[in-house]
Every structure is written in structure tokens, then in C-alpha cells.
Amino acid sequence: MSLAMTEAAPATGTSRWDYVLGTWKELDVPEGWRAEIVDDNGVVLVAPPSDPHNYIAVRITRALNGVVPDDWDVYQTLGIQLPAIERLYMPDLVVMPESVVLDPEQTPCPADAAELAVEIVSRSSRDVDRKKKLWGYAHAPIPLYLLVDAWDENGPSVTLYEQPGNGRYNQATTADFGDKIRLPEPFGLEIDTSRFPGPDEWPS
């Protein structure tokens, strides 16, 4: 479930992006919800994730924590901005250097500093995660985008997008739930998807 928020016109001399970003910063978001800017309609509130969604996020986080350097971290509630295309996402998971996260002059964090973004598709986020964020992350560019999609029409799958260029990813590798998918260096990690819950295990 998501709720779009109507925005007023920015004041004279204020760019649209600065205005929308300022609105995002001032929001009093309900606990567990997230605020994102995924298209030209302004700020959108996204409902808290389901238990299967959280479970997958934890499994991936555990795997990543075993390989990321000490000066990187894995975040679940970190906003990242893409000012060139006027977007602000809060990925389900994002790997970011701590030097960027702790820099007060880089708030929200610039998306192009991220090493990896992960989105876990829910019933309500299919179009956003598969299309809008795929486009956005490629434009950032973020070098790796991992899409976990229990709702894939061809069967539950995980797709790793790599080699961003010219606003798109130039390589994609897909593995079915139950198989492993390898993240290249600097991770050098195989993620085991055998315990990821399929669509029958998600709430209706």
C-alpha cells in the first residue's frame, strides 16, 4: 500500500527538486513507514513491509555482513537521492561507505556513492521496483542492483543487474528461488535463496 502526497508549487526562486526534497525532510512519517520520491508525483508514503519481506532482508543482510569492509555498512532505512532525475529512494537494503553516511553535507546520501541496492518486491511495489527503480538506479549509477521478486511471472526469482551505462544496466543474471546468485567483487559472495519464501507464504 502506498499513499501519494500532493505537493504545492515551490516558492519563487526555489527549484522544484529543492522544494520536494525540503518537503521530504520535514515529513512526520508514521513509525515503520517510508517516504520516497519515485516519480514526478512528489512524495509517496510506503507502508511497513510484511514478515516474509523482512525475513528476506535479514537473510541478505547476514550474508553481506560477512564480506563488507569495516568502513562500509548495510542499511535498511537510508534515504538516497538522485537529484539529476529528481528522485529519492529508500532501498530495502543499501550498502554505503560510512564516510558518506556520516558526512552532514551529504544528507540524504548521494545514490552514486552506494555500492549495492537491493529491492524486495511486494504485491504493491512490482511496477516501482521492476521499472521505476531499475531505471533510477541505472541513472545514479549504482554499480549493482539486486531485485528479489517472488511475484515474477516466470516463477520466483532473484535478478542481479550490473554494468550501468547510458541510463540502463547492460548485464542481468537471474536465478530461481532455491538457487544461488553470485555478487561480483568487491563482494565476491554467493547468496543462497533456498530459504526465501515464495508467493504462497506471503500475506494476501
Automatic annotation (TrEMBL):
SUPFAM superfamilies: Restriction endonuclease-like. The keyword Cell inner membrane does not apply. The keyword Transmembrane does not apply. Gene3D superfamilies: tt1808, chain A. InterPro entries: Nuclease_put_TT1808, Restrct_endonuc-II-like, Uma2. Residues 27-192 form the Putative restriction endonuclease domain. Keywords: Endonuclease, Hydrolase, Nuclease. GO terms for molecular function: endonuclease activity. PANTHER family: SLL1072 PROTEIN, SLR1083 PROTEIN. This is Uma2 family endonuclease. It comes from Nocardiopsis terrae.
